[in-house]
Amino acid sequence: MPAFSATSPGKIILFGEHAVVYGEPAIATPVFSSQANAIVTAHIQGKPGEIWIEAPNISLSAPIDQLEINHPLRAAIQVVIGDKELNQVPPCNIQITSEIPPSSGLGSSAAISISLIRAFSAFLGTRLSDEEVSDFAYEIEKIHHGTPSGIDNTVISHQKPVYYRKGKPFEFLEIGEEFSVLIVYSGKPGNTKEAVEGVRERWQEDPDRYNQIFSRIGEITNAAKVIIETGNPDHLGPLMNENHELLQELGVSSPGLDELVLAALEAGALGAKLSGGGLGGHIIALAKSDAANISAELVKQGAISTLITPVTNRNITR
Ligand code: PMV
Hints:
Elements: E1 3-15, E2 26-42, E3 51-55, E4 60-63, H1 72-81, E5 92-98, H2 108-123, H3 130-145, H4 151-158, E6 162-164, E7 171-172, E8 179-185, H5 192-205, H6 207-230, H7 236-250, H8 255-266, E9 271-275, E10 282-287, H9 291-300, E11 305-311
Parallel strand pairs: 3-5
Antiparallel strand pairs: 1-2, 2-5, 2-6, 3-4, 6-7, 8-10, 8-11, 9-10
């Protein structure tokens, strides 16, 4: 029985989170060492519309029509079948697995949606472009995050480092000199929706101050783009540190994230910042050849888990 499988990487934001919601640029890159997968298998004896979905990570095993209409997994199926009713779809089983920790700034929701959209559309015999996959996934991101900028679905569907500005054509980054980023989990899930809403409330109270912060983050992101494209990635360190301070000013860091950033710098990182929505989740640190040493030092100091990801133009999906 043919199975249709799709795998998607996670992602991290290198620069520009939160400011990107207000029209500033951001830079994000895929994380191939942590991936989500969806497998769709035809269920020969089933009746049309019988779609069974299994997602052991969230202890889910149920027919899709028993999920709420706006459950992200059901919504991802619906977005692929468009105006058709579920009962016009051939019966199938869907298995979803993910190594990407949820609510941690690694794009787990977009990676799951994109794997599901790709595998399910292949099962139906529909070929979607990366752009269409991204647009469909954006609809599901809205269920998760309210008013997402669209960066997660863009970087994960194209699986390349991108320079992204809301509403503008995104650019793939040509990496001048490959470098490694250490990703360190704080042990506490983040909350992107709450963080984005909090920033919006504070921005409404004091737009001038917040606009200034967003615009400085935009300048940092543009400076980082030049460095990434021309080489000398060591020069990204100070930009990461300043970006982290600005995120602190936006109110989206946390004592745990700040401690990890300091610990990474003390262990020899050239720069460090929180990544993603914040209020928990991950920090990233720029390490030269000593990424493994810094990682070991941080684990000694209580970091829960670390990943090292190359920022590269190579597609290294497993
Ligand atoms: O927490 P993540 O990885 O989904 O990143 C959120 C990034 C924000 O800029 C805070 C929100 C967005 O939609 O871009």
